[in-house]
From TrEMBL:
GO CC terms of this entry: cytosol
Organism: Desulfofundulus thermosubterraneus DSM 16057
Domain HTH cro/C1-type residue range list: 11-66
Origin organism lineage: Bacteria, Bacillati, Bacillota, Clostridia, Eubacteriales
Keyword list, A-Z: DNA-binding
InterPro entries reported in the protein's UniProt record: Cro/C1-type_HTH, Lambda_DNA-bd_dom_sf, TransReg_Diox_bact_type
Protein's recorded name: Helix-turn-helix
One Pfam family it belongs to: HTH_3
Gene Ontology molecular-function annotations: DNA binding; DNA-binding transcription factor activity
Length: 76
């Protein structure tokens, strides 16, 4: 199950650890809406599957970690 609150917290943590603004991350992912990352982090909206995969690839973490199904960020 997708836990939007866990996803929001982990996304914000990863973004801050990489020293990125929400706008820079949105640009790096090619998101049309620069405010999308902010909405993800506030758990207002959920990302598409394509965006989830792009985020996991960008931060080099597993999808399971990103969506709260695992506490281990490593890819297997």
């Amino acid at each position: 199950m997708f836990d939007r609150k866990i996803f929001a917290a982990r996304l914000r943590y990863l973004r801050e650890q990489h020293g990125l603004s929400t706008q820079k991350l949105a640009g790096a992912l090619g998101l049309k809406s620069k405010g999308a990352v902010t909405q993800f982090e506030k758990a207002v909206i959920s990302p598409s599957v394509d965006t989830l995969v792009a985020l996991a690839d960008f931060f080099d973490v597993s999808l399971d970690y990103l969506v709260g199904r695992s506490d281990d960020p490593r890819r297997h």
